[in-house]
Amino acid sequence: MFERIEVLGVPIDRVNMEQSIDWVDQTITGDKPEVIYSLNSEIVVMAQNNPLFLNLLRDGGLLIPDGIGVIVAAKWLGLGLLEQVPGCELMPAICESAARKGYSIFLFGAAPDVNVKAQEVLRERFPGICIAGARDGYVKDEEMPQLINEINSSGAQVLFVALGCPRQELWVEKYLPLLNVKVCQVVGGTFDVIAGTVKRAPLIFRKMNLEWFYRLASQPKRIFRQTALIKFVSQVARKRLGLF
């Protein structure tokens, strides 16, 4: 449906927010489950270093350009323009559509209090939304069959998984074939953002494409994750110069 390009060998769909919502609405009526993965510079580097991770991304139904890094890289590498589709904005947009069109959702992941608060906020923001079920992310391996049954018994059509990367992607790869949901989106820390336990960057930072800087400044422990960003920028520069 969408053009799928590759940035440094990692696939990304040329899709915008409206098209992403339309894709969800169409997939809801399909006959097999599909997954939405979010692509940013850290994910690209991770996929380059892990063939298994790269292959599961290739199998994704929708690969949204989440991070500004991949958008800038695509432009620099002559791949044309990509429109940013932040996963933390796509999830509420899907919930808004679900409330209007009557399909149900299931929230899996995050800490217990965060999961509960996220449910409360979603019900307040989107009156009429059907949250068919929810479970925090503290589920042991031996409890997975029970969780799968719980998700399937709920009748939910959309599943949001918030376990952090790469755990959430690996979980979906393993368990999606056992699920009756139609759409699954991995959402990282989005439950925390919705619940208000983690603040998004102010709008001015987002407009200046500096949300990553705000997150680093407000969460200094993220500095250890910036090595991936440095590697990504280096590879983009080398590719631009024909050295990669």
TrEMBL record:
Q: Which InterPro entries match?
A: WecG_TagA_CpsF
Question: Which CDD domains does the annotation name?
Answer: Glyco_transf_WecG_TagA
Instruction: State the UniProt keywords alphabetically.
Output: Glycosyltransferase, Transferase
Instruction: Give the Pfam families listed for this entry.
Output: Glyco_tran_WecG
Molecular function (GO) terms for this protein are:
hexosyltransferase activity
Question: What NCBIfam families does the record point to?
Answer: wecG_tagA_cpsF
Name by which UniProt lists this protein: N-acetylglucosaminyldiphosphoundecaprenol N-acetyl-beta-D-mannosaminyltransferase
